[in-house]
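2024-03-11 09:14:02 INFO worker-7 job=invfold-0412 stage=load source=structure_tokens
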């Protein structure tokens, strides 16, 4: 693992798509449209067949898997302009801007190493302020003889940074990227962009759930200094709706009720945010605003198939409030979701999360969002 390597890293090589940028969002939008034109239907479960591939490899995989009546070249020519139209809409992953700013501030040299073509990389990053200037080198898939999983792209990045390969840390979401980074003799942190895949990343030195979980000090790099009382402030975001019946186990099995929202219509919003445990404020239309701590994700202990949000309001209510409008302002991050050896240890951890949230939400940087107009419904 990271610690045992005892490496002091001098430079960081970052992958772009799926690591810094949530490219999947637009890829899925485009593939849904194109598959309908071929009389097929895009299958969300097939996302893994394109992750980490070059555009042509991805096109070939799709043509084969869906049995499309065209060549990979022809398919690629059809979808390329569709993607180009969408590049401006690609969002940075939570934690991406924070990481780039942090490394820039501390003068840690950074490179981008992506299987995408040079023009596509330049275009995508142009929509993100300060990114282009932050990278001392950019190595594209069309600038090397062999793309990832070949180490070539990483070796070239190290060369352009003027660093020994063993002094570089690679941050990657895809398996080909992890393979390439290890083959280049570098430290590799994997941030899988697809859920429930971490067991496939054995080759990586460390697997983290999201960029929010990166601990640069594990690699001899300057630590983040924005954690406060066990919480990480994030750009606040909102989600709300009527409280519905959940898995029926919150109060019954854990003794911790969680007021569930319908995920209908929210899956796109939830997919923008890493799974994990968060704190925030909850508005109940007829009652008021309360502190809240919640998990977002697949609840590894129960291994759910759907990504849900499980908000535990830190208040004793007299009874249920099913059907009421619940509005959440999510303002900080606590930890990744994890599995636990026993129900007792899961419950103990959730109570600890509750205490952390309870205390931190009194900090002015969080308490100010108690008055967020969204919570009272007046924003609509
Ligand atoms: P379900 O599986 O239907 O979500 P839970 O056992 O998790 O059932 O209980 C959640 C319900 O309990 C909420 O929908 C709400 O009506 C009620 N409830 C009472 N107190 C709280 C609280 N402090 N936080 C969240 N929900 C609460
Ligand atoms: N479930 C997990 O499997 N792993 C977790 O780490 C986890 N953390 C949670 C943290 C908080 C603050 C809350 C409210 C819930 C958490 N849960 C976690 C979800 C819990 O399993 C869920 O509320 C129940 O499954 C009820 O549906
Ligand atoms: Mg619940």
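2024-03-11 09:14:09 INFO worker-7 stage=emit residues=380
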């Amino acid at each position: 693992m990271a610690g045992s390597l005892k490496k002091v890293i001098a430079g960081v090589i970052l992958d772009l798509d799926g690591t810094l940028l949530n490219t999947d969002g637009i890829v899925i939008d485009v593939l849904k449209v194109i598959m309908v034109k071929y009389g097929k239907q895009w299958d969300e479960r097939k996302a893994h067949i394109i992750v980490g591939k070059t555009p042509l490899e991805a096109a070939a995989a799709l043509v084969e898997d869906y049995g499309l009546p065209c060549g990979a070249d022809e398919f690629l020519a059809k979808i390329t302009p569709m993607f180009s139209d969408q590049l401006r809409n690609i969002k940075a992953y939570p934690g991406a801007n924070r990481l780039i700013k942090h490394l820039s501030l501390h003068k840690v040299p950074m490179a981008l190493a992506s299987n995408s073509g040079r023009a596509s990389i330049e275009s995508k990053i142009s929509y993100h302020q300060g990114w282009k200037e932050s990278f001392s080198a950019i190595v594209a898939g069309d600038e090397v003889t062999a793309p990832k999983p070949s180490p070539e792209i990483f070796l070239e990045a190290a060369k352009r940074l003027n660093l020994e390969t063993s002094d570089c840390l690679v941050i990657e979401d895809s398996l080909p990227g992890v393979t390439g980074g290890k083959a280049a003799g570098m430290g590799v942190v994997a941030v899988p962009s697809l859920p429930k895949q971490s067991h496939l990343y054995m080759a990586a030195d460390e697997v983290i759930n999201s960029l929010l979980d990166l601990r640069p000090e594990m690699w001899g790099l300057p630590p983040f200094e924005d954690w406060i009382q066990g919480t990480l402030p994030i750009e606040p975001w909102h989600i709300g709706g009527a409280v519905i019946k959940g898995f029926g186990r919150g109060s019954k099995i854990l003794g911790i009720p969680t007021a569930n929202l319908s995920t209908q219509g929210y899956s796109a919003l939830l997919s923008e945010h890493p799974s994990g445990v968060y704190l925030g404020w909850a508005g109940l239309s007829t009652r008021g605003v309360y502190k809240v701590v919640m998990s977002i994700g697949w609840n590894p202990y129960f291994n759910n198939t759907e990504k849900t949000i499980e908000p535990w309001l830190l208040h004793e209510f007299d009874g249920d409030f099913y059907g009421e409008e619940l509005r959440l302002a999510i303002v900080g991050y606590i930890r990744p979701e994890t599995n636990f050896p026993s129900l007792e240890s899961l419950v103990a951890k959730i109570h600890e999360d509750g205490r952390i949230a309870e205390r931190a939400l009194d900090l002015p940087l969080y308490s100010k969002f108690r008055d967020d107009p969204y919570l009272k419904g007046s924003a609509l």
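2024-03-11 09:14:09 INFO worker-7 stage=report msg="Residues 343-360 form the longest helix (18 residues)."
2024-03-11 09:14:10 INFO worker-7 job finished
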